[in-house]
Design brief:
The chain is of the alpha+beta class. The protein contains 4 helices and 5 strands; from the N terminus they run H-E-E-H-E-H-E-E-H. The radius of gyration is 14 Å and the shape is globular. The N and C termini lie far apart (34 Å). The model has no long low-confidence stretch (mean pLDDT 92).
Length: 146
């Protein structure tokens, strides 16, 4: 974790959140790419929402794990996630869920809608990496631009 990043929970560690995302990724529906992605959104009350990617034969309507999580969050009447852990890997890789899987640009933009200060947790060969969402999507379009 970068020295300028303060973790957001005393009960749920970044590694715990990654473990939850790995469990969510196992549920992914990926008959075409075989690329499983899982996400775990963490909230102030330490509640965690799990989600995964869902593919479709028409690739354009595939939904990423991160956006799937946001849909669940909004459907539950929740807002302001503090952190999200994202894991992903092709099911044939030996380092399954141990490589970086950063949110795509569309997911970064959707996440920005709900908390520009959200922390993004990823596994990597160097261990756990944590970034501020606004570092991953600088100069994003937000409500401030209306």
């Amino acid at each position: 974790m970068s020295s300028n990043i303060r973790w957001v929970s005393e009960k749920v560690s970044p590694e715990d959140l990654l473990a939850q995302a790995r469990e969510a990724a196992k549920r992914a529906y990926v008959p075409y790419s075989k690329y499983h992605v899982g996400a775990a959104l963490l909230f102030e009350n330490d509640e965690i929402i799990l989600s995964c990617n869902v593919e479709n034969a028409s690739y354009g309507v595939t939904i990423c794990a991160e956006r799937s999580g946001i849909v669940i969050m909004v459907s539950k009447g929740m807002r302001n996630p503090l952190a999200i852990a994202v894991v992903g890997s092709h099911e044939d890789r030996d380092d399954y869920f141990q490589i970086e899987c950063p949110p795509c640009g569309a997911c970064r933009q959707v996440l920005m809608e709900f908390n520009t200060n959200m922390l993004v947790v990823m596994a990597s060969k160097n261990g756990t990496e944590i970034f501020k969402l606004k570092e991953l999507l600088p100069h994003s379009f937000t409500l401030e631009h209306e």
